[in-house]
């Protein structure tokens, strides 16, 4: 009531705040630029300024902005049917699930609206698997420092970052956090009788764009099999062609997860995600165990089928691998030219970056001032996650700007 009265008084006295963001919950700190149009790897502001987008909505716009095939699919579906809920069959969802299971380890798919929801589905599926197999005490999800699995209560407890947990009540039971790369601690944790699953990103995004060594992922798979523990891979950021394979696990011979979470690039900019499972895991998720009002809706599935058809093509993935090599070489040249400021090149494929010797936040701003959009991540990393459709020319443009920005950068 007090808030309503203050609004009336402010209006009557002409004292309303002039900030157009005043009614947005202040959980973000965006710069002043407002983008109104996109084309390929470029974004355009209201006054027509062009920016090269090398963050792609945080690894979301895999095919760039306003891809013609995606636009056509969305327009066509928008004129037919938007939503029915999962009370009814959705033909596009059935078609996309068939394609996903054809091209991956999966036998079952649950469609969501986001990566966080895919994580929640994965956590429930893992615990339900053990419950259904007579092991209700196996509830522990083993995760790793530097992880980011989303913003829901379950996801922030899985990630374990104290900054994200602060103010949201006590930590939930059933999550075990160990140091990234500490295999001795992992071997001990995975052998516990309460261990249900491990949850890991093959390439961490928020944690510093660091790739898990192939041999480590393989050893983790072996230990999971040895102890009856499920492997959940969070490929929300590193999946959908970003490393040069459809999913990052496919780089490692003999390794397949039991459950995989996908989002971001799978929709190419349209919000949806997916939780992929084996039959052994997915068969226990029966009616009433999980659900989503919007998940797998006709609009998302129309776009998703187009995105999958393009990115799953081996010729497309081969070009991602080739241009990734060009970008890696160019970043290495920047690192070699600025050894006083750059420690190393990080990541894999087109989820990569420069690990700096100081916080790169103002370096990100320098790049933006020069019309290049990049991100930042933990451990002082300047993060790059460009559209998968970039060319060598775009790489040259981006790395030229980055080199100029690093030259001018005065670390705080």
Describe the structure.
- The protein has 14 helices and 17 strands.
- 46% of the residues are buried.
- Helix content is 38%, strand content 18%.
- With 412 residues, it is α/β, with parallel strands linked by helices.
Measured as a percent range, the helix fraction is: 25-40%
- What's the CATH architecture name of the largest domain? 3-Layer(aba) Sandwich
Alpha-carbon distance between the termini? Answer: 46 Å
Biggest β-sheet: strands ordered side by side in the sheet: 4-12-11-10-7-5-6
**Class of the largest domain in CATH?**
Alpha Beta
| Overall shape | globular
Key phrases:
412 residues; alpha/beta; Aspartate Aminotransferase, domain 1; Aspartate Aminotransferase, domain 2; 2 domains; seven-stranded mixed sheet; four-stranded mixed sheet; 17 strands; globular
How do the strands and helices of this protein lay out in sequence?
Blueprint: H1 2-12, E1 35-39, E2 42-45, E3 50-53, H2 56-59, H3 68-78, H4 91-103, E4 108-112, H5 115-132, E5 140-144, H6 153-159, H7 162-165, E6 175-178, H8 183-190, E7 195-200, E8 203-204, E9 210-211, H9 214-227, E10 230-234, E11 259-262, E12 273-277, H10 279-282, H11 298-311, H12 314-337, E13 342-348, E14 351-356, H13 361-369, E15 372-373, E16 375-377, E17 381-384, H14 392-408
Parallel strand pairs: 3-15, 5-6, 5-7, 7-10, 10-11
Antiparallel strand pairs: 1-2, 2-3, 4-12, 8-9, 11-12, 13-14, 14-17, 16-17
Helix pairs in contact: 3-11, 4-11, 8-9, 12-14
């Amino acid at each position: 009531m007090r808030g309503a009265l203050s609004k009336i008084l402010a209006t009557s006295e002409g004292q309303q705040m002039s900030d157009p963001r005043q009614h947005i919950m202040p959980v973000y700190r965006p710069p002043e630029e407002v983008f109104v149009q996109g084309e390929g790897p470029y974004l355009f502001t209201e006054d027509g300024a062009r920016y090269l987008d090398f963050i792609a909505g945080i690894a979301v716009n895999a095919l760039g902005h306003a891809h013609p095939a995606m636009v056509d699919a969305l327009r066509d579906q928008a004129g037919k049917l938007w939503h029915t809920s999962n009370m009814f069959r959705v033909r596009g969802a059935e078609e996309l699930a068939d394609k996903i299971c054809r091209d991956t380890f999966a036998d079952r798919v649950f469609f969501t609206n986001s990566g966080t929801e895919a994580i929640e589905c994965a956590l429930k599926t893992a615990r339900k698997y053990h419950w259904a197999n007579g092991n209700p005490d196996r509830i522990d999800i083993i995760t790793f420092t530097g992880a980011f699995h989303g913003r829901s209560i379950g996801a922030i407890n899985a990630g374990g970052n104290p900054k994200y947990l602060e103010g949201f009540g006590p930590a939930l039971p059933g999550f075990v956090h160990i140091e990234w790369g500490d295999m001795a601690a992992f071997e001990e944790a995975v052998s516990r009788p309460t261990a249900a699953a491990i949850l890991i990103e093959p390439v961490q995004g928020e944690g510093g764009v660091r790739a898990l060594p192939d041999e480590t992922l393989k050893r983790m798979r072996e230990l999971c099999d040895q102890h009856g523990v499920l492997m959940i891979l969070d490929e929300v950021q590193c999946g959908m062609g970003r490393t040069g394979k459809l999913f990052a696990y496919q780089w490692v011979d003999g390794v397949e997860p039991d459950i995989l979470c996908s989002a971001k690039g799978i929709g190419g900019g349209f919000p949806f995600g997916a939780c992929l499972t084996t039959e052994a895991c997915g068969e226990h998720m029966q009616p009433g165990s999980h659900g989503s009002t919007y998940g797998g809706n006709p609009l998302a599935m129309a776009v998703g089928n187009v995105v999958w058809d393009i990115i799953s093509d081996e010729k497309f993935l081969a070009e991602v691998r080739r241009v990734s090599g060009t970008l890696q070489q160019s970043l290495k040249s920047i690192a070699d030219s600025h050894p006083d400021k750059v420690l190393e090149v990080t990541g894999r494929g087109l989820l990569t970056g420069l690990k700096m010797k100081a916080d790169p936040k103002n370096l990100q701003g320098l790049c933006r001032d020069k019309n290049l959009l990049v991100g930042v991540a933990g451990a002082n990393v300047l993060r790059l996650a460009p559209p998968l459709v970039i060319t060598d020319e775009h790489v040259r443009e981006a790395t030229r700007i980055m080199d100029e920005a690093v030259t001018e950068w005065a670390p705080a």
